[in-house]
């Protein structure tokens, strides 16, 4: 018999809906604090900036063209 789970965590079986038990993973994510989320986001943004810097060093011509395009957009931007 096929089962499907929707976003609310309900399992649909043969036209009947029943509640599923919350897993430990969903409990842990519900308890996650804002500070933990901000810390993970800051780490991600640091790694992203590092990857962009590496790409700019490896492909200097592309980086220069991107800088010039950005400068042109900023010059023509209307506040």
Structure overview:
This protein is an alpha+beta fold and 79 residues long. The chain has 3 helices and 3 strands; from the N terminus they run βββααα. The chain has a 3-stranded antiparallel beta sheet, with no helix packed on it. The protein is elongated and about 50 Å long.
Radius of gyration: 23 Å
The residue fraction in helices comes out at 55-70%
Order of helices and strands: EEEHHH
Give the total of beta strands: 3
How much strand? Answer: 5-15%
| Low-confidence runs | none
Structural class: alpha+beta
What is the global morphology?
elongated
State the end-to-end distance: 60 Å
Question: Going across the major beta sheet, what is the strand order?
Answer: 1-2-3
Mean pLDDT: 79
The major sheet is characterized as: 3 strands, antiparallel
Number of helical regions? 3
Topology:
Layout: E1 3-5, E2 10-13, E3 16-19, H1 24-31, H2 34-58, H3 60-76
Antiparallel strand pairs: 1-2, 2-3
Helix pairs in contact: 2-3
Q: How is this structure best summarized?
A:
The protein is an alpha+beta fold and about 80 residues long.
For this entry, give a set of tags.
single chain; 79 residues; alpha+beta; 3-stranded antiparallel β-sheet; 3 helices
């Amino acid at each position: 018999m096929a089962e499907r789970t929707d976003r609310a965590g309900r399992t649909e079986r043969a036209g009947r809906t029943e509640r599923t038990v919350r897993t430990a993973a969903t409990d842990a994510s519900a308890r996650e604090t804002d500070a933990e989320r901000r810390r993970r986001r800051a780490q991600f943004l640091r790694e992203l900036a590092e990857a962009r810097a590496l790409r700019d060093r490896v492909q200097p011509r592309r980086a220069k063209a991107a800088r010039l395009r950005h400068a042109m957009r900023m010059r023509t931007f209307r506040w």
